[in-house]
Amino acid sequence: MEWSRFHRHKWDQATTFAWKNFSSAPVRRMFSFVTVLGRAALPEDKLKELTELTQEMKSSYSAAKICRYDPTRRRLDNGDYDYNADNDLDNDIGCIPTLSLEPHLVQLMATSRDPEELRYVWRAWRDAAGRPLRGKYTRFVELSNEAARLNGFEDAGDFWRSDYETDDFEDIIDGLWAELRPLYEQLHAYVRRKLIEKYGDTIVPPRGPIPAHLLGNMWAQTWTHILDLTVPYPGRPSVDVTNTLRRQGYSPFDMFRLSESFFISLGLEPMPSTFWQKSLLIKPTDRDVICHASAWDFCNGIDYRIKQCTQITMEDMITAHHEMGHIQYDLQYRNQPFIFRDGANPAFHEAVGDVLALSAATPSHLQEINLLANVDESFENDINFLFSMALDKIAFLPFGYLVDKWRWEVFSGEISESQYNSRWWDLRVNYQGVSAPLLRDEDDFDPGAKFHIPANVPYVRYFVSFIVQFQFHAELCKAAGHSGPLHRCNIYRSAEAGRLLRNVLSLGKSRPWPEALSVLTSGRTNQLEAGPILEYFEPLMSWLESQNKDEFIGWQENEAIVLGVVSSNASVRPFSAVIAALKSPSRRASLLSSTFGLRVTDFETSPVLWLRSDSSKAVQKDGMCLREPWNVLRNPTDFRAQKPHTEFT
Ligand SMILES: *[C@@H]1O[C@H](CO)[C@@H](O)[C@H](O)[C@H]1NC(C)=O
Ligand SMILES: [Zn+2]
């Protein structure tokens, strides 16, 4: 709040200057940023309300816990697991919710192969984390829009998009997605077939969207944890070095040192000593912290920190690179005027660490640092490697887009409050080709079960980052003199690549991002381009096309399967009985509520459930430093000027 007042004071002064007439372009640019006040433009009472609301949503999300899955308990007469009872966290069934998202639920979603357990966890998390936020979020949208309008924007989405300093941002994103969608669809079709081999076609529809709980991740946003079910050529050396890290006794600290050594090998900055003293790299046991990994710039040129509840896994090793990339960027632009100390755009900030990780995760680099024994560069190994990268980088793309597409439409009013959840699922089905494993309705608030919604962190930056990082990779590889396929490039120890990267990063936000791209590409382009990411995955694309010759590519929404209807023992209650009940409106409401514990309010106007034509299954349709507390600070007075723009996906 104090910072808001200070900022507001500056704003009052700046907006009264005729700054648009200044002759110096950098000074004009500075003023254009200072005159955007953000939420601090609100009158004091509303600012307070919005600040508290955001804080409440975040705490509520991070405090959410669920009960353990216990298949031996609470069955309905027909054998169905009794979701209704088990999720009623406040009643007296004696369940004490103890499982939190990190690490428990993340691990469960990643490792469980029991579809019922996954379905339970998937739903219980949304009940605990998403649902309670719905009312708060509605008010939050009103206040955010009001703040945006006071800053001269149409709504809060318009305000967010202004970070990208271009009028056709949505068209740019649509264009990129259109180029990448064919690759996504090939990956989707292949993974769907592998999941059918594992779970059967009564759970995974051959021509439909994939049920969202089977992809190894709470939000189906990356699919790396089902590599074991999908790996193209099984029985070959795994490029996941998790076990080696553990065997070699790596600590969280060691993993960050490893990441730092990559930056240093390029001639970039080592982490300052305060980083090692003050970062929080291990989950504390004596207090609750928000475990979502983030990087912090305290805006004093000295104090930079990372907060990450680090596990010893390859995934967290990559995350360590990601977070350290934020700090490296912070360090590179620290000599810029205060107001330009930011990424060229938010996606650039997300990309830096990932760019290094693209090299760091190559089998050749892992061998170089003794994490992998000799792996020959056979076609099969290449495909395995590219496939595991695609489960991360390609699988993520539609989710990376739709989170903000949903929010932009919410902020603009195109999605009304009564459609929050159904429109969320429209986007999930249309873009990702995943469907909810259970009926959803408008009492649910599934967007709220994803950190960035309650925490109010814009998301499309990750989509853009996943594309622009391959542009970076391609250019740095060129600078490093790499020849051969792009996915084999490793820029470790290349001073030339380091110099080029430094030239781009040290600009901070002093120039519009197209100019930064122009520096990166030596003037070849100033646009976001899908070319490099497509080039990187080209060998995989060809392989997937040949594998998918007989597959249905894409998905039909009306083929989706609602697994809530499939009981653990299907013979106990024939589907025909369920279908018959669903056809009668009065019985439908009671069935839905007794079977799924759902209150289906406006079922007729917003149908979320159709019947499959074969009647065998039911189907579903559907620069400024901020002021959030570094919640592990010992001395809370020194966080006034901190800059946590940098959360993890
Ligand atoms: C991008 O490059 C084009 C063509 O070279 C140029 O006309 C345009 O002004 C550049 N855009 C920016 C924002 O630098
Ligand atoms: Zn990040």
From TrEMBL:
Chloride binds at residues 164, 461. It holds the Pfam family Peptidase_M2. The active site is at 323 (proton acceptor 1), 323 (proton acceptor 2), 452 (proton donor 1), 452 (proton donor 2). It catalyses: Release of a C-terminal dipeptide, oligopeptide-|-Xaa-Yaa, when Xaa is not Pro, and Yaa is neither Asp nor Glu. Thus, conversion of angiotensin I to angiotensin II, with increase in vasoconstrictor activity, but no action on angiotensin II. Coiled coil: none annotated. GO terms for cellular component: plasma membrane. It is an enzyme of class 3 (hydrolase). Belongs to the peptidase M2 family. This is Angiotensin-converting enzyme.
